[in-house]
Amino acid sequence: MLLGVTGGIAAYKIPELVRRLRREGCEVEVVMTRAAEHFVSPLVLATLSGRRVWRQEDLLSEERGASIPHIRLAEWAEAVAVAPCTADAASDLAYGRGEGLLAATLLAAEAPVLVFPAMNAHMYGNVAVQENLSTLARRGVRVVEPSAGALACGEEGPGRMPEPVEIAEEVFRALAPVHDLQGVHVLVTAGPTHEYLDPVRYISNPSTGRMGLAMARAAWHRGAEVRVILGPVDPAPCSLYGLEVTRVVSALEMRDAVMANLDWARVIVKAAAVGDYRARERKPHKMKREGREALSLDLVQNPDIAAEVGAKKRPAQILIGFAAETDDVRRNARAKMERKGLNFILANDVLAPGSGFASETNALRLIAPDDEELLSGRKEDVADAVWSSLAGRLQL
Ligand code: C5P
Fold this sequence. Notes:
Elements: E1 2-5, H1 14-23, E2 29-32, H2 42-49, E3 53-54, H3 69-76, E4 80-85, H4 87-95, H5 101-108, E5 113-117, H6 121-125, H7 127-138, E6 142-143, E7 147-150, E8 156-160, H8 164-175, E9 185-190, E10 195-198, E11 201-203, H9 210-221, E12 225-230, E13 244-247, H10 251-260, E14 267-270, E15 277-279, E16 299-301, H11 305-312, E17 318-325, H12 329-340, E18 344-349, E19 361-367, E20 372-378, H13 379-394
Parallel strand pairs: 1-2, 1-4, 2-3, 4-5, 5-6, 9-12, 9-14, 12-13, 14-17, 17-18
Antiparallel strand pairs: 7-8, 10-11, 15-16, 18-19, 19-20
Helix pairs in contact: 1-2, 1-8, 3-5, 4-7, 9-13
The protein binds cytidine-5'-monophosphate.
């Protein structure tokens, strides 16, 4: 992807963005305006991107002229992001000016364009700037609103460039080869639950929420609107940008949150590792060990959220469950699918190496009523493969 850097103080964060994009396998080529070089060094960006950095003097250089840099760059780019995008850069783009190398490249580019305006809050609020940004949005440019907060000039307000991790999420969405979940409402549960016994102790499991959140992010990249009911994971294993997240602690809270979103959802992915049992009575004070050689817990069963959704769902809704098994994976998973009214189940053997809880990779068996498919790799790649497989079957 092509990254246009213009002259705002937020440019100091761009090296981190380049690293992040590279880490996720994205090839990044940087075009800088002259003003941008005051804020971040071309050498830093060339080193981190592993490619040459294009500068203003390359546009009319006798040496480079033969390769027509702005045309070559525009043809190469699968997406173009301008970050930070100054008031000047937004104006150039809105008016279709082509004096600068970046501006000329943007005129020639046919790939999706994203801009990340970042400037003083008053400048951002100025009618001229707002009109330019509206013009861009109307023409199909993705204008990502700056966040509000402390600005470099000492003021507070809207004008902060989103963090590199957030910009990267927007770029991944723009680069997704298919947007086959455009507008589809996807509800995902992820993470463990904590079932408190007393104010300081709980029963839980090692789920990190990574697989569920990978499913949520991959759906968002493909254009879905995504809500996540997320159990206690701190810190979250990935960016939550773009996801509408409701945090819950216990299975009962998760159940209520899922039911509150049930009418909204078209596809429901139950990836949370929900605690099967909770204390019949949560003690108001910390249980003391003195005078107690052994301790028996009185536990009651939690509601099975997936089964409840399976029983209540409308025919057009699709319910996808996960099955973390330690033995007889396929048979147990198929039985679970029947019992809970699931349309699909993703089964994994949590005892197999490189699979299951707190692992970076996963090997999942996608089980449909009439066939099966084995998907393995990084959890993020597996999540994408799951959606590819499901979107083909579902006609969403
Ligand atoms: O725990 P179990 O193996 O039965 O989980 C299978 C599926 O059911 C998973 O998708 C899980 O998120 C869901 N589940 C649930 N509520 C529970 C237990 C499991 O929704 N109380």
